[in-house]
Amino acid sequence: MEEHLDKLIDWHGALADLAIRFGPKALVAILIMVLGGFVGRWIARMMLRGLSRFDLEPPVRQLLVRVVRVLVFGMFLIMALQNLGVELLPLIAGLGVAGAGIALAMQGVLSNVVAGLTIIFTRPFRVGEYISIIGVQGEVENISLFSTVLTHRDRSHVVVPNRKIVGEVLHNYGRVRQVEVVVGVAYDTNVDTAKAVLRELLSANPKVLQDPVPELQVKVLADSSVNIAVRPWVNVPDYEDVLGELNEAILARFRDRGIVIPFPQREVKMVA
User: Fold this and answer.
1) What is the band of 67 on the pLDDT scale with cuts at 50, 70, 90?
2) Quick one: which of 94, 145, 82, 27 has its CA closest to 74?
3) 53: Cα separation from own chain's centroid
4) In this structure, which topology does domain 124-174 adopt according to CATH?
5) Which of 113, 157, 184, 262 has the greatest number of beta carbons closer than 10 A?
C-alpha cells in the first residue's frame, strides 16, 4: 500500500514539476496562437477591402485572402513552437516526407487545384458568362480551386472538375448569345417583303438586343423554299424564351400577311 502511495506521490510530483517548467510556456504559446488567429482575420478583412478596388474575380480575391491568412497564422505558429522549445528542422523534414506521401495519394485532387489556379489567374471565363465545354454548357455560377459550377435554365447544376476544363476547347459566349431561327418561304415570295416583316418582329420583341444589330440573310436555296436565317442577339437568360417567341410570332405574322411557308414537296413526271 505504501509503495502505491509513494508512486502516486511521485507521479503527482512529476506532473507538478512539468506544470511549473512548461506551464507558462504552454500558456504563452496558446496566447500566441489565439493572437495569430485574430491578427490573421484582421489582415484578411483589410486585404479584402483593398482588393475590392481592383478588377479581380471573387475566387481570386478569396484565394489571396486565404493564402495571406494562412501565412500569418503560420508565422505565429512558428513563434509558439519556438517558445515551447520545439526543434523546427526535424519537424519540417517530417512534414516534407508526409507531404510527399499525401501528394502521391491525392494526385487527382492536386491536379484539380493546379487547374483551378490556372483558370482563376488566366480567366478564360468569368462568373456570369455562358460557356460550352466537354459536351456540357451553362452559365458559370462559381469557380473554386477544385471545380466549376454551371447552371442551366431548368435550375439544375453541372459540377465540372477543373482538370477537365484546362486543355479542352472552350466556347465562351460571354453574357449574350445569338439566336438562329431559319424560316422557309415559297420561291414566288418577295424576299424583301419577308425580311421587312421579320425586322418588325425583331423590333417589337423587348428581349431582342438592337446592339449588335440583328442579322437577316438568305441562308439556303432549298428544294422547296428559300430559307431565311434570323439571327438576333439576346441576353443569356432570354435565349430559350426568344427562340420560342420568334417562331410563334413568325408563324402568326406570315399567315396574316399571306406569306407562304411551303411544305417539302417534290414534282414527279411520268414519261410514257
Assistant:
1) confident
2) 82
3) 22
4) SH3 type barrels. (2.30.30)
5) 184
Whether the upstream peptide bond of residue 212 has omega within 30° of 0, thus cis, is yes
pLDDT value for 102 = 53
C-alpha span between 62 and 55 (Å, rounded): 13
Q: What is the secondary structure of 45-80 as a DSSP string?
A: HHHHHHHTTS---HHHHHHHHHHHHHHHHHHHHHHH
Is residue 214 within 8 A of residue 208, CB to CB? The reply is yes
The helix or strand, by DSSP H or E, that contains position 15, with its residue range, turns out to be: helix 2-51
Q: Are 179 and 239 in contact (CB under 8 A)?
A: yes
All CATH 2.30.30.60 domain ranges of the chain, comma separated, are 124-174
Quick check: helix, strand or coil at residue 246?
helix
Cα dihedral 192/196/198/200 (nearest 10): 180
With cell 449574350, the residue in question is 176
Mean pLDDT confidence for 3-22: 55
The set of residues, in sequence order, having a beta carbon less than 8 Å from that of 173 and lying 6+ positions away, is: 129, 130, 131, 132, 236
* 215: phi then psi, degrees, rounded to nearest 5: -100, 140
Fold classified for 176-257: Alpha-Beta Plaits (3.30.70)
At residue 161, what are phi and psi to the nearest 5 degrees? -60, 140
Which of 144, 253, 150 has its CA nearest to residue 193? 253
Sorting pLDDT into bands at 50, 70 and 90, what band is 16? low
Cell reading at 21: 517548467
